[in-house]
Amino acid sequence: MATTRKPTKPKTSADLKEQLEAAKKRLADLEKRAYAEELTELIGATNIVADFAKIKARVTDIKDVAILAAVGAAVGIKRLEIKQAEPPKRKPADPNKPKKPRAKKST
């Protein structure tokens, strides 16, 4: 039995541009993962962490994100955007559902 396949239509320019943007994003993520270990070693060998702690101790009531943005500007990184994600929120417990008793540990 031969199955008939639907003929493929050629991709439009918009489709190709969308595919290119997705590929660029995947490449950037891959580069970040590829150099992560090397960067961690280099940062550990420098005094960046100690200097960051000194700045934080000197200037009270400042967020870490603001310090990182200032460092990026001082280094000369243009269009640097630093965000700190909110911690994930837990779903509240259902008040109608009874709590399960914990198993007692035997010693």
Structure description:
With 107 residues, the protein is an all-alpha fold. Among the domains are: 17-46; 54-85, no CATH class. The chain has 3 helices and no strands.
Essential attributes:
mainly alpha; 107 residues
Largest β-sheet summary: none
Order of helices and strands: HHH
Q: Nearest-angstrom radius of gyration?
A: 26 Å
Record field, number of beta strands: 0
Summarize the helices and strands and which ones pair or pack.
Layout: H1 13-45, H2 48-58, H3 64-75
What does this entry show, briefly?
52% of the residues lie in helices and 0% in strands. The relative contact order is 0.04. It has helices at residues 13-45, 48-58, 64-75.
